[in-house]
Amino acid sequence: xxxxxxxxxxxxxxxxxxxxxxxxxxxxxxxxxxxxxxxxxxxxxxxxxxxxxxxxxxxxxxxxxxx
Length: 67
Description:
single chain; 67 residues; Alpha-Beta Plaits; two-stranded antiparallel sheet; 24% strand
């Protein structure tokens, strides 16, 4: 099984990942990262399709094997 991880510090909240997510489980966080940006966060059951990973221009998203 795979899982998606978001690096909050790399995220610039461009919103591309939110737009391409087929199950709408990505949202803008209410908290800031150290750059003063509201990064994207997972808010539901992700299917780990990898579309967000492929589209992220900042390499803030990874799809990893779940341990």
